[in-house]
């Protein structure tokens, strides 16, 4: 397996070639990414419009989708995907630079934007640094401010659940809040906070504050473990049972959750029914 741009932040493995052009993609592919998919659909839409203009109506229904896929698929793997990976690499590099400048600043940035990065699949620019730190140092402090984000997200959903008078929305909030406690926030994000906009923004701000606290404590995570409340044991050093990171990560989580809940409870209002 060849390596492209070795020694730079754009270093990537080449897993295959298409017409002698290297195909650069994450080892796991693109199942957790949104940006490559959005860009691929945009490119495909432009290709489809072109074919609709030049292909006769008699054979348009068959040839337009076929030719669109024939062009869009290789472009996705050769151009669109690597472009998205480069954006993720730049984000990872800038975050590392912020960490070296100030762990508190880096904690605030990671906490604020973690959920946004996850939505677009750009968090993969930070994951390699996290794994490398675990393998070389036995712990990671770089990415841990993200831990406050899921609790802030759960808190805003809990606030919406208590504040709303919409029975359907309330019924959605209950399972979303329960899954969020255990670190699975997709139902909360896509089902409630992101469509409502303000709760999502509040959760990002609260996670930024919690992330800054976690960064200030130089919190260390010693293993890749579970999420949510089950993630706390991963902050205990298994070599000597050192629990010095637990108070800091707990403080960051509690502060983020309290700020998110209070702010959302005060600000949130049900939307008026459209006539």
TrEMBL record:
<dbReference type="InterPro" id="IPR003352">
    <property type="entry name" value="PTS_EIIC"/>
</dbReference>
<feature type="domain" description="PTS EIIC type-1">
    <location>
        <begin position="1"/>
        <end position="275"/>
    </location>
</feature>
<keyword id="KW-1133">Transmembrane helix</keyword>
<feature type="transmembrane region" description="Helical">
    <location>
        <begin position="29"/>
        <end position="47"/>
    </location>
</feature>
<feature type="transmembrane region" description="Helical">
    <location>
        <begin position="143"/>
        <end position="162"/>
    </location>
</feature>
<keyword id="KW-0472">Membrane</keyword>
<keyword id="KW-0598">Phosphotransferase system</keyword>
<dbReference type="InterPro" id="IPR050558">
    <property type="entry name" value="PTS_Sugar-Specific_Components"/>
</dbReference>
<keyword id="KW-0813">Transport</keyword>
<feature type="transmembrane region" description="Helical">
    <location>
        <begin position="246"/>
        <end position="268"/>
    </location>
</feature>
<dbReference type="Pfam" id="PF02378">
    <property type="entry name" value="PTS_EIIC"/>
</dbReference>
<keyword id="KW-0812">Transmembrane</keyword>
<feature type="transmembrane region" description="Helical">
    <location>
        <begin position="67"/>
        <end position="95"/>
    </location>
</feature>
<dbReference type="InterPro" id="IPR013013">
    <property type="entry name" value="PTS_EIIC_1"/>
</dbReference>
<keyword id="KW-0762">Sugar transport</keyword>
<feature type="transmembrane region" description="Helical">
    <location>
        <begin position="107"/>
        <end position="131"/>
    </location>
</feature>
<feature type="transmembrane region" description="Helical">
    <location>
        <begin position="199"/>
        <end position="215"/>
    </location>
</feature>
<protein>
    <submittedName>
        <fullName>PTS transporter subunit EIIC</fullName>
    </submittedName>
</protein>
<feature type="transmembrane region" description="Helical">
    <location>
        <begin position="174"/>
        <end position="193"/>
    </location>
</feature>
<keyword id="KW-1003">Cell membrane</keyword>
């Amino acid at each position: 397996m060849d390596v492209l741009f070795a020694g730079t932040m754009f270093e990537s493995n080449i897993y295959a070639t298409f017409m002698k052009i290297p195909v650069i993609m994450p080892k796991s592919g693109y199942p957790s990414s949104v940006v490559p998919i959005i860009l691929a659909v945009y490119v495909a839409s432009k290709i489809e419009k072109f074919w609709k203009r030049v292909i006769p109506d008699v054979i348009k229904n068959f040839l337009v989708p076929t030719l669109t896929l024939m062009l869009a698929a290789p472009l996705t793997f050769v151009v669109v995907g690597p472009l998205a990976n480069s954006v993720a690499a730049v984000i990872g590099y800038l975050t590392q630079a912020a960490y070296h400048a100030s762990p508190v600043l880096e904690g605030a940035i990671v906490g604020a934007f973690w959920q946004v990065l996850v939505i677009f699949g750009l968090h993969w620019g930070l994951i390699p640094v996290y794994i490398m730190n675990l393998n070389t140092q036995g712990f990671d402090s770089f990415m841990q401010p993200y831990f406050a984000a899921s609790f802030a997200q759960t808190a805003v959903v809990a606030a919406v659940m208590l504040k709303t008078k919409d029975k359907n929305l309330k019924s959605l909030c209950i399972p979303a809040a329960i899954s969020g406690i255990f670190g699975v926030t997709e139902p909360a994000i896509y089902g409630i906070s992101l469509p409502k906009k303000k709760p999502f923004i509040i959760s990002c701000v609260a996670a930024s504050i919690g992330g800054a606290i976690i960064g200030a404590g130089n919190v260390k995570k010693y293993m890749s473990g579970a999420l949510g409340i089950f993630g706390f044991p991963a902050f205990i050093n298994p070599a000597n049972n050192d629990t010095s990171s637990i108070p800091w990560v707990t403080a960051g989580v509690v502060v983020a959750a309290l700020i998110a809940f209070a702010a959302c409870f005060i600000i949130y209002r049900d939307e008026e029914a459209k006539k």
